[in-house]
């Protein structure tokens, strides 16, 4: 497979995906790659990982809830799968739309868009406590608006003891937040 991971952060999922794709695949990282490129990817075991979208810029203005995307450059095409794990909440609505549409272009027809994030209650107003949480119903609507079809979901990360009221870094829920996991498909009839 050819896989593209969006905003790899410190490389948690890079550590999982890179070894799997090393022998029979291609692995790309895009958007928010500076940290992982200057640290983890310097290790020889990751020499096959390709950082793209080096021209893509993002920053979080002082006192802002979301990061802002500047130039967005996702130059690969015909990717089999794009992963967006625990970073869908990072951008505002306009930039999420831009990113979803760029991902749609990068995927081959029939390609998979896998998205996981921390759960926020449906329709709940934005607060500082839920800043890194996202409403899965809203995510579905936004991603479908970019042309994707919701194909499946998983309850793997369901945590009934997370009341969805605490910031995800709070020690009472850190590492144990309820998360939604959605699988979208780019329609085969679309080029």
What's the short version?
20% of the residues lie in helices and 25% in strands. It is an alpha/beta fold.
Assign the CATH topology: Rossmann fold
Low-pLDDT residue intervals, each spanning 5 or more residues: none
Record the strand order, biggest sheet: 3-2-1-6-7-9-8
Strand content: 25-35%
CATH superfamily: Vaccinia Virus protein VP39
Distance between the termini: 19 Å
CATH C-level class? Alpha Beta
Using brief descriptors, characterize the structure shown.
4 helices, 25% strand, seven-stranded mixed β-sheet, single chain, Rossmann fold, two-stranded antiparallel sheet, 191 residues, alpha/beta
What does this 3D model show about the protein?
This protein has 191 residues and is an alpha/beta fold. It has a single domain, classed as 3-Layer(aba) Sandwich (Rossmann fold), CATH 3.40.50. It is built from 4 helices and 9 strands; from the N terminus they run E-H-E-H-E-E-E-E-H-E-H-E-E. It has helices at residues 12-21, 34-38, 93-106, 136-145; strands at 2-6, 26-30, 50-51, 58-59, 68-69, 79-85, 107-118, 149-154, 179-185. The strands form 2 sheets. The protein has a 7-stranded mixed beta sheet with strand order 3-2-1-6-7-9-8. The radius of gyration is 16 Å and the shape is globular. The protein starts with a strand and ends in a 6-residue tail after the last strand. The model has no long low-confidence stretch (mean pLDDT 94).
């Amino acid at each position: 497979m050819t896989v593209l991971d969006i905003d790899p952060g410190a490389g948690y999922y890079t550590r999982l995906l890179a070894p799997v794709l090393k022998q029979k695949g291609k692995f790309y990282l895009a958007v928010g790659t500076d940290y992982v490129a200057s640290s983890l990817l310097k290790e020889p075991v990751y020499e096959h990982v390709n950082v793209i979208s080096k021209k893509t810029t993002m920053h979080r203005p002082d006192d802002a809830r979301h990061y802002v995307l500047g130039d967005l450059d996702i130059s690969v095409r015909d990717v089999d799968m794009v992963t967006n794990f625990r970073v869908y909440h990072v951008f505002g609505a306009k930039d999420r739309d831009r990113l979803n549409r760029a991902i749609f272009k990068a995927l081959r027809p029939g390609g998979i868009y896998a998205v996981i994030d921390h759960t926020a209650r449906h329709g709940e107003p934005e607060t500082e406590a839920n800043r890194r949480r996202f409403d899965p119903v809203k995510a579905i609507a936004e991603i479908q608006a970019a042309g994707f079809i919701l194909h499946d979901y998983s309850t793997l990360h369901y945590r009934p003891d997370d009341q969805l009221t605490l910031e995800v870094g709070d020690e009472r829920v850190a590492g144990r937040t309820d998360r939604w996991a959605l699988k979208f498909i780019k329609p085969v009839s679309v080029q």
